[in-house]
Amino acid sequence: QVRVVESGGGLVQAGGSLRLSCAASGSIFRINGMGWYRQAPGKQRELVAAITSGGSPNYVDSVKGRFTISRDNAKNTVYLQMNSLKPEDTAVYYCNVEYFNLRGSYWGQGTQVTVSS
């Protein structure tokens, strides 16, 4: 019943910006952590940014200063603002959601981000 829906991916030139959104629904429990992962062809999936229930963010070094993660608890939504995009940011971006009082986590379907040179 839990549903995680991502949006906002697309094609952008280097130096441009995109804003990803991820909305979670279908559970009465409070959301704990939320995070954005990405996977490029031939590479392992990596954690890009995560945010705690209280709004404390963490980032992988390669995106610090360029990406901003935020959340709206009233909407059960997490955002990833991506600025100064580079071709190496090209990947499928996945949203992950954890709930209090539930084991495991839930994944979105992924959204493609392509950054051209």
Could you describe the 3D structure shown?
By secondary structure, the protein is mainly β. Helices cover 0% and strands 55% of the residues. The chain contains no helices and 11 strands. It has strands at 3-7, 10-13, 18-25, 31-39, 46-51, 57-59, 67-72, 77-82, 91-99, 106-107, 111-116. The strands form 2 sheets. Strands 2, 4, 5, 6, 9, 10 and 11 form a 7-stranded mixed sheet that branches. Strands 1-3-8-7 form a 4-stranded antiparallel sheet, with no helix packed on it. Strand 9 (91-99) and strand 10 form a beta hairpin. The radius of gyration is 14 Å and the shape is globular. The mean pLDDT is 96.
SSE blueprint and pairings:
Blueprint: E1 3-7, E2 10-13, E3 18-25, E4 31-39, E5 46-51, E6 57-59, E7 67-72, E8 77-82, E9 91-99, E10 106-107, E11 111-116
Overview in brief:
By secondary structure, the protein is mainly β. The chain has strands at residues 3-7, 10-13, 18-25, 31-39, 46-51, 57-59, 67-72, 77-82, 91-99, 106-107, 111-116.
The helix fraction, in percent, is under 10%
Compute the number of strand runs: 11
| Spatial gap, N to C terminus | 40 Å
Number of helices: 0
Strand content bin? over 45%
Largest sheet: 7 strands, mixed
Question: Secondary-structure element sequence?
Answer: EEEEEEEEEEE
